[in-house]
Design goal:
The strands form 12 sheets. A 4-stranded antiparallel β-sheet has the order 1-26-25-24, with no helix packed on it. The chain folds into 3 domains: about 120 residues, YVTN repeat-like/Quinoprotein amine dehydrogenase (Methylamine Dehydrogenase, Chain H, 7 Propeller); about 140 residues, YVTN repeat-like/Quinoprotein amine dehydrogenase (Methylamine Dehydrogenase, Chain H), CATH 2.130.10.10; about 250 residues, Neuraminidase (6 Propeller), CATH 2.120.10. β8 and β9 form a beta hairpin. It is about 0% helix and about 50% strand. By secondary structure, the chain is mostly beta strands.
């Protein structure tokens, strides 16, 4: 695990005692301020808004109805707040002095809470019906004073208890099917300073964090599949894998008493600082691509969220979220724009024509650079090594009215040259680019007739068309999703996607011929395809899949220098090889 930094956001109310924290249904993070009698909301960008709340709010959770449910430690009630910050209900707990600290949503669609001041577990429905169950011990589940972990059946309400080490505190369901919990109490002096693991059959194991007297408290499963926990005494955020390997990350504010912790929706970990009066955040990086990865596919959701899929041997091996970018920017293409790898992402502002390149390595964005603006009457056609310069990705743009092409050389995140490369009728659309001919340092272009579905393949070298072939016709309900080395390093295989079902079909292409076809599965239609690129980097951009489909409306323009190249044409010999994908 690389060294990670912690970011802190100061809570406006002084001495607010931020206690519990949860991820809301609205995409924000919510927390209680026990000392400030407030509930706070923090956006993923760190903007904090506070709402008044009565009764010294303690625990908080996102309810099954989309609202926030919280406990009132001083008011002996359960409260309900909308994501607009409006308290709609307060429900009294039947037993006085219940001292309810924590609350969670159960598998039965109700809210469950522990009464630290009694011997009971409480249940409340979203309509406000409260039921209490006796545990027979002086604290709830976990049982800090009883040194037990309790389990209650949500249907029969039968209670089972398991003996563990002293003072089990916070608990979560682990990624391995076991229960993971912290073993310490901020009010005790005989803490074991351990993280506990309990299987559903009662097998108990302990793991000791590196920092002595760390007083582990809140615990959560991180986006990386490890357990993350807050160290109130060690002033760290800890991480432990399911096999017991620890890493710790220091909290900047001294003696902050990191307490509650939760995983956010953006691969971040959020936590409260009881005495630091801050909300902390730590970003968990995406894992590196798994072994056997030869290509990446990037998908974009309508809200601007980008996902990267690692591909190899005609299969999806892994996936991860890259980032969320403003929806005024659209996907333009993938390529080697900085001279270091083949999976850099180019986005374009649909309103201004401005381009922004994102350098990507190991499934992570490492840098972002503006590369200029081109008129929106030009659309991006695709990317490849059209100039036959190794290690360089060039961009081909097209005038949406005339069909004229402009070629832009890009190196080190900078446009270095622009040339005109001819025109073709607008009923022909660029479908994809790749090394279909098998010639080194060469990117070939695949075009498709928008009326008939016919494919035409053009071999390109030194900014010239050297050969042309027909690959046949396929139904227009199958669209080109991308081209990349899905079958192995150095290949250019074409992926089609059914616009009605989301199904993917991969076609292996070699020497300008289709050699095989394989189903790749399906992805929900709420995700649109961005592109596919070679991974790990090959150092040869001709082997990387570039922009997979001309995306009208996101192009560029500008006058280019003239070249004596033959204009593109569609008048070639017919060699039908491609048919509509068939499935058993």
């Amino acid at each position: 695990m690389p060294s990670l930094s912690v970011t802190e956001f100061s809570i406006p109310t002084a001495n607010s005692t931020p206690f519990s924290i949860t991820a809301g249904a609205d995409g924000n993070i919510w927390f209680t301020e026990t000392g400030g009698n407030k509930i706070g909301r923090i956006s993923l960008a760190g903007a904090i808004t506070e709402f008044s709340a009565p009764g010294a709010p303690g625990g908080i959770t996102a309810g099954p109805d989309g609202a926030l449910w919280f406990t009132e430690i001083g008011g002996n009630k359960i409260g309900r707040m909308t994501t607009a910050g409006v308290i709609t209900n307060e429900f009294a707990i039947p037993t006085p002095g219940a001292a309810v600290h924590e609350i969670t949503t159960g598998s039965d669609g109700a809210l469950w809470f522990a009464e630290a001041g009694t011997d009971k577990i409480g249940r409340i429905t979203t309509s406000g019906v409260v039921t209490e169950f006796s545990t027979g011990l002086a604290a709830g589940f976990t049982e800090i004073n009883g040194d037990k972990i309790g389990r209650i059946d949500p249907t029969s309400h039968a209670i089972t208890q398991f003996n563990v080490a002293p003072h089990p505190s916070m608990i979560t369901a682990g990624p391995d099917g076991a229960l993971w919990f912290s073993e310490s109490d901020v009010l005790k002096t005989d803490n074991t300073n351990t993280i506990g693991r309990l299987t559903t059959t009662g097998s108990f194991t302990q793991f000791t964090p590196p920092t002595a007297n760390s007083v582990p408290q809140g615990i959560t499963v991180g986006p990386d599949g490890a357990l993350w926990f807050a160290e109130a005494g060690g002033n760290n955020i800890g991480r432990v894998t399911t096999d017991g390997n620890f890493t710790e990350f220091a909290v900047p504010t001294a003696n902050s008493a990191a307490f509650a912790i939760v995983t956010g929706p953006d691969r971040t970990i959020w936590f409260t600082e009881l005495t630091g009066n801050n909300i902390g955040e730590i970003t968990v990086p995406n894992p590196a691509p798994p072994a056997g990865t030869t290509a990446d596919m990037i998908l974009r959701r309508a809200d601007g969220t980008y996902l990267i899929y690692d591909l190899g041997n005609n299969a999806i091996l892994a996936s991860a979220q890259l980032a969320q970018v403003g929806t005024d920017f659209q996907f333009a293409g993938l390529g080697d724009f900085n001279g270091a790898d083949t999976t850099d992402m180019l986005l374009r502002n649909g309103n201004t024509g401005a381009f922004q390149v994102y350098d990507i390595s190991n499934n992570r964005i490492t840098n972002s650079v503006s590369v200029g603006t081109v008129g929106t009457n030009f659309v991006v056609a695709g990317f490849g090594d059209f100039s036959s310069n190794p290690g360089e990705t060039d961009m081909l743009m097209r005038n949406s009215s005339t069909g004229a092409f402009e070629l832009y050389d890009i190196s080190n995140n900078t446009i270095t040259n622009a040339v005109a490369t001819g025109a073709v009728g607008t009923n022909w659309r660029v479908a994809a680019f790749g090394d279909f001919s098998g010639n080194a340092n060469e990117t070939d272009m695949l075009m498709r007739n928008t009326n008939t579905g016919q494919f035409e393949l053009y071999d390109l070298a030194n900014n010239q068309i050297t050969a042309a072939f027909s690959l046949g016709t396929v139904g227009l309900d199958w669209q080109v999703a991308g081209v990349g080395p899905l079958n192995g390093a150095g290949t250019s295989d074409m992926v089609l996607r059914n616009v009605n079902t989301g199904a993917f079909e991969v076609y292996d292409i070699s020497n300008n011929m289709i050699t095989s076809a394989t189903s790749l599965g399906a992805v929900g239609l709420d995700f649109q395809v961005g592109g596919i690129a070679a991974d790990p980097p090959t150092g040869n951009s001709s082997q990387a899949a570039q922009l997979v489909q001309a995306m009208a409306g996101f192009g560029g323009g500008g006058a280019g220098e003239g070249l004596n190249t033959a204009p593109f044409g569609a008048d070639t010999s017919q060699q039908p090889l491609l048919t509509t994908p068939q499935h058993a």
